[in-house]
Structure formats: C-alpha cells, structure tokens
Write a structure and sequence with these properties.
The chain has 230 residues and is an alpha/beta fold. The protein is built from eight helices and five strands; from the N terminus they run βαβαβααβααβαα. Helix content is 37%, strand content 12%. Strands 3-2-1-4-5 form a five-stranded parallel sheet, with helices on both faces. Strand 2, helix 2 and strand 3 form a beta-alpha-beta unit. The radius of gyration is 17 Å and the shape is globular.
C-alpha cells in the first residue's frame, strides 16, 4: 500500500477525503492543526474520525496562526451568521484564515518527504464553499507545481508529488452520499465555526448552513447536534 498525507480537520469534507484515500488503496496519514482556532472541538472530532476510519497515523501540529490574526476563526471578530447561501462565493468572508491552506500544505509536504509519501489529499471544494481563494483548482495546481521544485526527494527524482483534491467539483450532497458509501459516520464529524456549550453547532454560520443544505439535498438525516436541539 502507498502512503498518503491527508489534511484533516475532522469535518465533513476532510473525513470524506480520508475515506476516499483509503478506498483507493492508500495508507492515509492524517494531519491536523492546532492553529489558534476558536475551539478544541474540531481536534476532538479529528481524533475520533481518524480512529474510526483507521488512519495509519494521526499527527497534530501547533501552528500559531492566531498570532497573525486577521480572521473570525482566530481573532475577536464576529463569525457571520444567517448569510444567503446563494451569495457565499461573491466575496471572501472574514472566516478566511490568511494563507491557511498554503501553510498547511507546506507542512504536509514536509511530512510527505519524511514518511515518504508522494500523494497529498486535501478536501477543498469549489462548488459548495465560502469563497476562499485557497480552495480553487488554480491554487491546488500551482502548489503541486511548486512542491516538485521545493523538496530534495522530488528534485533528486525519488518522489513526484501529486496533490489530490477529489471533492473539488462535488456539491455537499454528493460528498455526503459518497462518504456514507465508504463508511463515514458524520455524527462523529464537526463543521461549525462557532460552536456552543458541549460542542453543539451553532446552525447559523456558513459552514453549518452548507452542511444542513448538503444533508437535505442528499435526502439523509443530519446527525449534527445543533444548539437548538433538545
């Protein structure tokens, strides 16, 4: 089996991505980050799902993006709520974390060189997404090109890095349906930007709204524990 690095938040997309990598015959090494996000709920979900899906390894790195700030996920900026889903991609919202996927992929590349693994999976999506520039196909292609110029193992011909973004052109409904086929338990995952007590999802941020829409369109019961749930 070939090794692969999977960027892994424990959310809906990255969990599906890890399951896809495993279904393709890879030994997935899950890579998560404590980057100063608002809560530890995300990392608790990542630990649960990595174990549930049988990741070969799960590494959590500390990356102090909170020190830089500039995002509602890492600074004292209100998380937008109740936005119109049809207009999400019209602007880059304040939940965008400056250069986050660039930083995360760079660290995935470093781990890939050591493991070794020449395949890196990232669950970015350009269909149902919040307008982030580092979730676009152009970004993924550019990073892959850079990666093969950046590391010793590639320059000396032992690795050829490929960045896989299998969810890029799938809507949330398809992501959920495919994940269920592969055994993802979405009740273990977490997507909310602004969870409340006990890790309950707010149900109103962009991520929650997209998650709700996905389950509704997939015709599948949403297992998420929202703040309004009894």
């Amino acid at each position: 089996m070939k090794n692969a690095i999977v960027l892994f938040s424990g959310g809906l997309d990255s969990s599906t991505c890890l399951a896809i990598a495993k279904s393709l015959g890879y030994r997935p090494h899950a890579l998560s980050f404590r980057y100063g996000q608002r809560h530890e709920v995300e990392l608790e979900a990542a630990r649960r799902v990595a174990e549930h899906l049988g990741a070969a390894a799960h590494l959590i790195l500390d990356v102090p993006l909170k020190t830089i700030g500039g995002s509602a996920l890492t600074a004292a900026i209100d998380v937008p709520k109740d936005r119109d889903l049809a207009s999400l991609a019209d602007e880059i919202p304040v939940t965008y974390v400056p250069a986050r996927n660039t930083v995360f992929l760079a660290l995935a590349l470093a781990w890939a060189e050591v493991v070794p693994a020449q395949d890196i999976f990232i669950g970015v999506n350009a269909m149902d997404y919040s307008g982030y520039p580092d979730c676009r196909p152009e970004f993924v292609a550019a990073f892959e090109n850079m990666a093969n110029l950046a590391i010793k193992e590639a320059v000396e011909g032992r690795l050829k890095i490929t960045i896989h973004a299998p969810l890029m052109h799938w809507d949330k409904a398809r992501i959920i349906r495919e994940g269920l086929k592969l055994g993802v338990d979405y009740g273990l995952t977490h997507s909310c930007y602004d969870p409340g007590e006990g890790g309950r999802a707010c149900g109103r941020c962009d991520s929650c709204l997209l998650r709700k829409k996905g389950f509704a369109q997939a015709g599948v019961a949403d297992p998420t524990r929202y703040k309004s749930s009894e």
